[in-house]
Amino acid sequence: MRRNKKERTALKTISIAIDGPSGAGKSTLAKSVSKTLGYLYVDTGAIYRTIGYAAFSKGVDPKDGEAAAALLPELEIGLHYGEDGLQHMTLNGADVTDQIRLPEISLYASAVSAHPAVRAHLLEMQRKLARENNVVMDGRDIGTVVLPDATVKIFLTASVEERAMRRFRELEQRGTPESYEKVLEEMRQRDYNDSHRAAAPLKQAEDAVLLDTTELDFRQSEEAILRIIRERTSR
């Protein structure tokens, strides 16, 4: 039974934080897990990708913190779920769901997300969703910064070679192929950027469960995540 907003906020909601490096399968797994549990799925990476895409579209250097911050007042970012059940992102009224997944936008997203002004701008938006709904939220600092009191925290990872191969296959399926060597190089660069940024660097929360999926397929990975969630929420 769907509860109204007032009823939901009066109850203690459950929040699942899934963090990890690029290409670990966070979004795909979080989306599937949220559907199984009947929770709201929030792809925070897509929100940062939308800002990265805005910088890309306007020719703004994503590493320039002042320029990135100056963009924010001009941006109207929307998140909604379409009839396909997928999270769609809009930028100033235009659906940019497909555009933000282009390979070059990954590095733009990584760069803009390093700026404190950008992270502060989006923080309350993410926390409000968790206050009002049971959520599965994935990103790089959900368990450490966005939702430090999350009910369950999982740090999802895999070897960089495996993550690059997964992304390589994904790009092929989307019809935007890149060489494996280029994907691997960009993956390593993003890992470095995300873990060395001054604002909310990628790291495992002290109370997060580490799950390495290098040797696991999708079904095994999903079962492992659900098992962790059920164990932690039944305590």
TrEMBL record:
Major place of residence: cytoplasm
Example of a GO cellular component annotation carried by this entry: cytosol
Entry annotated with the keyword ATP-binding: yes
InterPro entries in alphabetical order: Cytidylate_kin, Cytidylate_kinase_dom, P-loop_NTPase
Gene3D superfamilies in the cross-refs: P-loop containing nucleotide triphosphate hydrolases (3.40.50.300)
Enzyme Commission number: 2.7.4.25
GO molecular function: ATP binding; dCMP kinase activity
Subcellular location field: Cytoplasm
SUPFAM superfamilies for this protein: P-loop containing nucleoside triphosphate hydrolases
Annotated positions binding ATP: G20, P21, S22, G23, A24, G25, K26, S27, T28
Reactions this protein catalyses: dCMP + ATP = dCDP + ADP; CMP + ATP = CDP + ADP
NCBIfam families for this protein: cmk (TIGR00017)
Similarity annotation: Belongs to the cytidylate kinase family. Type 1 subfamily.
Descriptive protein name: Cytidylate kinase
Lineage: Bacteria, Bacillati, Bacillota, Clostridia, Eubacteriales
